[in-house]
Amino acid sequence: MYAVHVGQEQNEEKSTKMFHTSTQRKHWTFASENELMNIRQEVNSAYRKRFCENFPAKKDVDFLTVEEGMKLIEYYQIVLIEVCDKFQPPVSNAVTATAVAYLKRFYLRTSVMDHPPKEMFLVCLYMACKVEEHNLSVDRFVEILPVDRREKTKDFILAHELLLMQRLNFHLTVHNPYRPMEGFIIDFKTRCPKLADPERWRPAVEEFLRKALMTDISLLFPPSQIALAALFSASRRSITSYISANLGEHQQHVLSQIENIVTVVNGHAKSTESKDQIKSLEQKLKACRNPENNPDSKLFKKKRADRDKAMDESM
Questions:
Q1: CA 101 remoteness from chain centre
Q2: Chain centroid offset of residue 68 CA
Q3: How confident is the model over 90-139, as pLDDT tens digits?
Q4: Mind giving me the DSSP string for the chain?
Q5: Largest alpha-carbon pair distance within the chain?
């Protein structure tokens, strides 16, 4: 028992150090929700300015607002999670969380009007499968789709993998709360065997972490604190005792942080956008999306034809 406990402490320390020195902490963890909103507003404004400069004839375009873009992203986060449940066998929680993290990060650097989430969410999921070692060929991956969509989707994924990696600054490792959660459960069993059996909390903990995916929590807090908040939400009394007994002078700060996380997650309003409302937003998106990135636009087709012609002439 002692050896297991020591080994667990070492694993938790290693995991914490890994996050502490990670690109996630340095580049993808932000100070506040206000900072995230400012970034999104800057991306939206930059896209509008660039669009007006590149297409001056389209003066009266009705652009999507930041809030409208966020509604589309949240909707496709839900779709992404639902798609993850369709795989047989299902993909791991780590794959789902990493895919959602990619989607969030991508749209911190990219406007939905440049690359719509309806097209990009499967690229994020396929990349997450690779990174989290859920080994699927792209042909196997698209088998979850209707037959008539498979070939086109496969071509799109392969054509946009590099774009996704570039917008993520090639920071592909995502530290999710699932590993520290398992560590905390083992440590709780060891340190507090008389308090409660944490295994019975799993359904509530996993539901909390699933709800957390729909928020910006992963962009604001370390995964260890998110994991502890999930356990705290399942048994406030037991986890408060665990923190008080083991974190010494840091206990008040940690308790404050996890209470903030629980408040944000439990206070997050479930998306109430109907499919008709999403269709309305996507209809609006058609008029303001970048035609250079739209496979159905005349400009995109002309540029592709010119590129293919130039390649043929050079051979």
A1: 2
A2: 18
A3: 899 999 999 999 999 999 999 999 999 999 999 999 999 999 999 889 99
A4: -HHHHHHHHHHHHHHHHHHHTSHHHHHS--S-HHHHHHHHHHHHHHHHHHHHHH-TT-TT--PPPHHHHHHHHHHHHHHHHHHHTTSSSPPPHHHHHHHHHHHHHHHHHS-TTTS-HHHHHHHHHHHHHHHTT----HHHHGGGS-HHHHHHHHHHHHHHHHHHHHHTTT------THHHHHHHHHHHHHH-TTT--GGGGHHHHHHHHHHHTTSSGGGTS-HHHHHHHHHHHH-HHHHHHHHHHHSGGGHHHHHHHHHHHHHHHHHPPPP---HHHHHHHHHHHHHHS-GGG-TTSHHHHHHHHHHHHHHHHH-
A5: 77
Q: Extract the tokens encoding 215.
A: 């928020």
pTM greater than 0.85: yes
303 pLDDT tier (thresholds 50, 70, 90): low
Tokens read off for 271: 């998306």
Q: Is 227:178 a contact under the CB 8 Å cutoff? A: yes
21: which residues sit within 8 A by CB, 6+ positions away?
Answer: none
For residues 103 and 126, the answer to whether their CB atoms sit within 8 Å is no
Condensed to tens digits (0 to 9), the pLDDT of residues 45-84 reads 999 999 999 988 787 899 999 999 999 999 999 999 999 9
Q: Rounded CA gap, 132 and 124, in Å?
A: 12
Specify whether the CB–CB gap between 177 and 226 falls below 8 A: yes
What CA–CA distance (Å, rounded) separates 276 from 48?
Answer: 26
